[in-house]
Amino acid sequence: MLPRSRTLPSRIHHGAIEERHDIRHYLQVEVQPKVSESEAINPQSNYSKCFDDDGRLKRTGTFWTATSHIITAVIGSGVLSLAWAIAQLGWVAGPIVLALFAIVNLYTSNLLCMCYRAGDPVTGQRNYTYMDAVKANLGGKKVMLCGLVQYLNLVGVAIGYTIASSVSMMAIKRSNCYHKSGGKDPCHMSSNGYMITFGIIEVVFSQIKDFNEVWWLSIVAAIMSFTYSTVGLGLGIGKVAGNGEFKGSLLGISIGTVTHSGTVVTSTEKMWRSMQALGAIAFAYSYSIVLIEIQDTIRCPPAEHKTMKKATAFSVTLTTVFYMLCGCFGYAAFGDLAPGNLLTGFGFYNPYWLLDIANVAIVVHLVGAFQVFCQPLFAFIEKWSAQKWPKSDFVTAEYDIPIPFYGVYQLNLFRLVWRTIFVILTTLISMLLPFFNDVVGILGAFGFWPLTVFFPVEMYIAQQKIERWSSRWLGLQILSMSCLVISLVAAVGSVAGVVLDLKTYKPFKTSY
């Protein structure tokens, strides 16, 4: 008998495995007995070697699997819009803003790592999800607010990744079309068929039961992310070398510049673009919404927060170097004409085969990234449904399905139906709003302050019992309020971009 999904975990009672049939507690923070540090670090003294100190199947994640999850979540489609973002801000503000976002994300992620176990980071009870951590440390209405923001953001990320993948699929066909016609054919086409193709792929991969089983897909996706980032960087360096100069200006795009998306006529539109660029950079670093879920896959000893801090520091440092190089060389190559998507905006045309490889890598990466971001949402809905209908076989029963070359797959009908419906809905919404840069900006603005800054800061203050109005408390509050202002500014700019796009948009008929 295969182990049950982590969605419906087993418990241990006096050395025996006890299947829980009353699963109402799964939406709650599970109350666990207080254990000593030695018991937390060495749970085998009280539990089977197959189970952790909380009675769940032993976690097997390592520094490298956590790093692959983070890189898969961080180096996403956002990296491709960084050249455009820096073009709006200029050589002075662009790299500075990019570096500041990296520092803030690294700092607040370390605060959030400490909240995986409530009370004490080594011996406290585990929080399996971001919402569990908020409930254990803050409680009250903030739990509902966190859940609303987190899961809406996860839905938004799924939509954004569907749009980005379809653009990359089209770019493959367009680059070959452009090559065959010698540049005479504009090669316009609709994105709808490519979004549907991506949706079908995600329907299949969405049947992976939980986060613990997605590790191999994350490793493949992380490799792909480095592949296309390196190609983008290489093409940017080559373009700069061919130009014999660094394009761009200290203050960013000039008023009156004719761009791929229209003419910048007034200082107001330049302001909107600069504000939208903040959202694009924020989106490029957005992974806090799945940080706790990633940390819940890590084995101990050593203590989970130690491994997670190392993985976070390594991942954010590595991705920031890539971001700086890709964004800056993309801007240096094209200046004010930097495309919204470096590899699909046709700033580059040749070598077309290398562009094809890069865009294939983007699609493969987004298949994995979609799962990394959506697994927490899948688990939440399935736990809630199991609480609501605990006696329904449709919701809780699992059926063994033998699959050649794989083994036995445990099929749950509710998981099959609801995850399929979710992918269909996100695909339809993507077809209605296929605006890559604007959607990226809105997602970054919407999720940055509450999930990356506010909740980690507030939970850390509560956990460490930092005295109100102390210098440390004031410093954390100033950080939080500053990031709130940035999120609001980015949201306004991104919404303004969507409004402009809607003036020329026809539902389901957008072509590139």
Automatic annotation (TrEMBL):
A Pfam family the protein falls into: Aa_trans
Main location: membrane
Keywords, in A-Z order: Amino-acid transport, Auxin signaling pathway, Cell membrane, Membrane, Symport, Transmembrane, Transmembrane helix, Transport
Record-level GO BP terms: amino acid transport; auxin-activated signaling pathway
Membrane topology (UniProt): Multi-pass membrane protein
Domain Amino acid transporter transmembrane: 59-499
Name assigned to this protein: Amino acid transporter transmembrane domain-containing protein
Species this protein is from: Rubus argutus (Southern blackberry)
